[in-house]
């Protein structure tokens, strides 16, 4: 069911990927985000969130992620979540984190919680900023309990959010210091989870946008694509804007490069979001994206 998110657009040849560096965004109150089809688009109150990129569309339509059953207003065009290629759908609601609790660490897929709640798995290269992002999403300082020492991280860590869905912290990969054997185990362990976890709605693959694409990340993303595992790319550290002297690129350029490098492995353009744990960029957008994937998944 969730895999159907991957099938909205055919593969298109790599073309110009226009991306607005500094989208002019409007502060919208939540009520103004409501539509007639989804009156309670986001069930938070009073709070003002900048969510929708109201600038003229600069991402070509074939590069957008349009969730199923999304009706696009022909006059106004799609409503795109800021700093992403994700179009807002009628399923976006209940996007606030009210409660978060650690449930369990499992060493294999079969041992994971089996109550059938939908889940999202966070994974990325060691040091990509996963703990910082998970903590910023749940607004707690130390929720991601994983230690950085190889050996202590080989668990699937389930956190229950709002007593209704799971955020899953998976072992980081690519530790320079880990022995080869251990690296292989991590591969097998996480691959088994990706392929067999029926309640997995989407893998959130974290990619450091402050540096050029790494081979291991490209391999990871292409493996997910080839195995039709639904994936969202979460670009981290997007606040690091300083151009390095030796040909370093801005986050937006790295975001573009990464997608071009993996495009052949995906039938449809995967959703992506630019984030920073320092500025909280992308936090609300991740939560909204999760909510619309989750609510669609629950209905089908
Ligand atoms: P993990 O190993 O993937 O869990 O990564 P951490 O969350 O521990 O972060 C690794 C390093 O990157 C730490 O020094 C963080 O302070 C830094 N870091 C994490 N997120 C960001 C971010 O959004 N922006 C910047 N500039 N640094 C970050």
TrEMBL record:
Q: Does the keyword Protease apply?
A: no
Q: Enumerate the UniProt keywords alphabetically.
A: Cell cycle, Cell division, GTP-binding, Magnesium, Metal-binding, Nucleotide-binding, Septation
Cofactor(s) needed: Mg(2+)
Q: Which Gene3D superfamilies match?
A: P-loop containing nucleotide triphosphate hydrolases
Among SUPFAM superfamilies, the record links this protein to: P-loop containing nucleoside triphosphate hydrolases
Recorded hits in InterPro entries, A to Z, give: G_ENGB_dom, GTP-bd, GTP-bd_ribosome_bio_YsxC, P-loop_NTPase
State if Nucleotide-binding is listed as a keyword.
yes
Per UniProt, residues of the EngB-type G domain are 116-296
* Pfam families per UniProt: MMR_HSR1 (PF01926)
Please give the family membership noted in the entry: Belongs to the TRAFAC class TrmE-Era-EngA-EngB-Septin-like GTPase superfamily. EngB GTPase family.
Query: By what name is this protein known?
Result: GTP-binding protein
Q: Which organism is it from?
A: Tanacetum coccineum
């Amino acid at each position: 069911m969730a895999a159907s998110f991957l099938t909205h657009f055919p593969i298109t040849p790599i073309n110009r990927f226009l991306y607005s560096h500094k989208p002019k965004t409007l502060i919208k109150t939540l009520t103004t985000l409501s539509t007639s089809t989804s009156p309670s688009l986001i069930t938070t109150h009073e709070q003002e969130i900048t969510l929708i990129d109201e600038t003229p569309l600069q991402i070509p339509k074939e590069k957008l992620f349009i969730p199923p059953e999304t009706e696009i207003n022909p006059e106004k065009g799609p409503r795109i979540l800021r700093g992403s290629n994700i179009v807002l759908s009628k399923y976006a609601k209940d996007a606030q984190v009210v409660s978060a609790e650690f449930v369990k660490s499992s060493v294999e897929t079969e041992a994971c919680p089996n109550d059938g709640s939908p889940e999202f798995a966070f994974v990325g290269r060691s040091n990509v900023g996963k703990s910082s992002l998970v903590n910023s999403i749940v607004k707690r300082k130390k929720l991601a309990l994983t230690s950085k020492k190889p050996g202590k991280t080989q668990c699937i860590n389930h956190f229950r959010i709002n007593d209704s869905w799971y955020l899953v912290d998976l072992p980081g990969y690519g530790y320079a210091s880990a022995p080869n054997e251990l690296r292989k185990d991590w591969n097998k362990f996480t691959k088994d989870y990706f392929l067999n976890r029926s309640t997995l709605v989407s893998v959130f693959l974290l990619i450091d946008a402050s540096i050029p694409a790494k081979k291991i990340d490209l391999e990871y993303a292409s493996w997910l694509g080839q195995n039709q595992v639904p994936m969202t790319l979460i670009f981290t550290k997007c606040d690091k804007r300083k151009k390095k002297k030796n040909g370093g690129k801005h986050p937006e350029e790295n975001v573009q490069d990464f997608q071009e490098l993996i495009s052949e492995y995906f039938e449809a353009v995967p959703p992506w979001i630019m984030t920073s744990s320092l500025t909280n960029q992308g936090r609300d957008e991740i939560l909204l994206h999760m909510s619309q994937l989750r609510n669609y998944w629950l209905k089908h």
